[in-house]
Write a structure and sequence with these properties.
It contains 13 helices and 11 strands. The protein is of the alpha/beta class and about 325 residues long. It has a 6-stranded parallel beta sheet, sandwiched between helices.
């Protein structure tokens, strides 16, 4: 039997009625075509997810966003306790800590990378990160924090526990309230980093370990135990996911063990045809049992530095 297609008329945008970003995304849901409609639907799903008290809320994203002003959006989600757990990459802590102590700078995609290298400036897209604002300051600041933990006999820590320790170490910094790490500690939101050595923060931990502290251990099994506790204590689960890779996969992987996510919003720039996890749409995860067949879900194609501030601002206004 052929399922009857619902005929819902397209409405035009009425600009005179757009008084806020929330009103804009409402019109996107009814008026916008293509990605605009998906943005409106994503806002509706996230509002339902956040309002659902039976739902554990997961936020996954890659580190690159933290080098941008989008860090402020992520920080606000943790500050307002709108997510229960974060799953991300090591570079998130790199960039977040570095920007507590040093600034990053505007650049351009078209700059000469040979010239930048000779001047000791690293380029991430159109953002410039001088060596003194990244590797140098991280080594200067991270090693004393690790030494202090070691003296306190804190030698077997999950990544989320390490993040909390670093958040605690920031409590006297002037710019602490801009920090994702600080708010994770302050509000006791676990930040799980499945690949902790893939970045400067993790490398500094390795450097500390091999430099006479061989009994210092990053305990990934304790991270998995925390995820298990959070997920199986909740009746439902939902996720806001930015980009693919290990952070997205760890999110959907764990949810298959409780019959899949109930809510899922995914923002990506990747194509689907190459079979990558980054390009895989939410519907593909249903086949694996990582998202429930009757879940509320949407994949939104586009740049998260544009879409995340728009979507989160709209949701917060509600």
């Amino acid at each position: 039997m052929v399922k009857k297609i619902e005929r819902k008329p397209i409405k035009d945008f009425e600009l005179q009625k757009i008084e806020s970003i929330a009103k804009l995304t409402e019109q996107m849901k009814d008026s916008g075509g293509f990605v605009a409609k998906k943005v409106g639907v994503a806002c509706e799903i996230l509002k339902k997810m956040i309002a659902d008290k039976d739902c554990v809320k997961i936020f996954s994203f890659p580190a690159c966003l933290v080098a941008t002003g989008t860090r402020g959006v992520i920080k606000e989600l943790l500050k307002r306790k709108l997510v229960d757990v974060v799953i991300t990459t090591c570079g998130t802590i790199d960039h977040d800590l570095a920007r507590v102590w040093k600034p990053y700078y505007h650049g351009s995609f078209e700059l000469d990378d040979v010239t930048l290298h000779r001047q000791g400036i690293n380029r991430e897209g159109n953002i410039l990160i001088p060596n003194e604002c990244y590797g140098q300051i991280l080594e200067e600041k991270i090693q004393p924090i690790l030494e202090q933990l070691y003296k306190q006999d804190k030698k077997d820590l999950a990544t989320y526990e390490l993040v909390w320790e670093f958040g605690n170490a920031l409590k006297h910094e002037k710019s602490k309230e801009n920090s994702i790490t600080y708010w994770a500690w302050k509000n006791k939101i676990p930040v799980i980093i499945p690949g902790p050595t893939d970045g400067a923060w993790g490398w500094q931990i390795w450097f500390f370990w091999q430099n006479g502290h061989r009994d210092f251990n990053v305990n990934l099994m304790k991270d998995e135990e925390k995820l298990s506790e959070l997920l199986f204590a909740a009746k439902k689960s939902g996720a806001l996911m930015i980009g693919g890779g290990i952070s997205k996969h760890h999110t959907i992987w764990w949810n298959q063990f409780k019959n899949g996510l109930d809510y899922a919003v995914y923002i990506t720039t990747a194509p689907e045809w190459d079979g990558s996890l980054s390009g895989a749409r939410m519907r593909e995860a249903i086949s694996w049992g990582k998202i429930k067949e009757k879940a509320k879900y949407i994949t939104v194609e586009g740049d998260a530095t544009v879409l995340l501030p728009l979507i989160v601002t709209s949701v917060l206004k509600k």
